[in-house]
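call fold target=Histidine phosphatase superfamily
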Amino acid sequence: MAPHLLLIRHGESVDNVAGLYAGSRDSSLTNHGVLQARRLGSHLADNAATLGPIEHIFASNLQRAVKTAEAVAQAQLGVRNAHTMPQVVQLPMLREKDFGSEEGMRFGAREIARRGASSSATWVEPESRQSMKRRVDRFLDDFFLATATRAVSATPPGSIAIVSHGIILNVLLRCLLMRFGPGQMVRFAKAGTTPRASEWLASWSNTGYLVLEMRVLPLAPLAAPASLPNTPGLAASVAESDRGVQSVNAVSNPVDGSNASSNPDIQLSVKLVNCTDHLQGLKKTRSGIGSACFDEKQKTLDSFFSRAPPK
């Protein structure tokens, strides 16, 4: 089974419910968002036979992404008889787009505010697409490549999860496909067109995930050496030269792969987009409880009915 890369959006947040541009604001998960994250974790663990056990997790360092990632990690305990859960690596470069002075504004109110305040000296412009791309490229170079190389080379292989936010996930997806799966871009284009740089490739529901299969492209076979005229002096010279080439190749391309290239040709192919099967049947608690900020100190319903310890 080939390892997979999962791009996951965080669970429902307080700012999602309020209809606000959260961006780099550290908006908490709602009670419903926590249930979504737990459902996601259980679902991914139950489907480890097809998606692979998740052995590497990267997340934005905003708490709505961290808490979602932690739910995924905790559910991996016991998968493949694992006694430890994968570490959640929190990275600021995976944070959502910074909306500048538009942070915390209601959906639809940005243009009105921009017209009224963009000339102010205190107005901060939203983060540009180029800035987000630089962040994503830095993540790919500094963290993803080495981890993906280990994942595709391991026996048995392990999968990777990246938990982040809707806008930056689109930037990440585009950068990934441009590097490792350019032929997959057409899957996200409208009929008869090609996706433009300004377009979103995909959408993510809260805890929705996109699945990419990771494979290593086979190395092209070496061409056979050309035949040479039967000249004794030339043949001896070529034989000596060949021995030198073979010895170099033996070091740079060992048969056992122990010294293989640190940056193999990884190929990505899209398998699922915005999968939310784990949310089937999950209903939001009414009376505003589901939309309220999750309180880790709050007792669950089960705790009220737990048996008293024996005396």
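return ok
The domain at 4-222+264-304 is CATH 3.40.50.1240 (Rossmann fold). The first strand starts at residue 4 and ends at 9.
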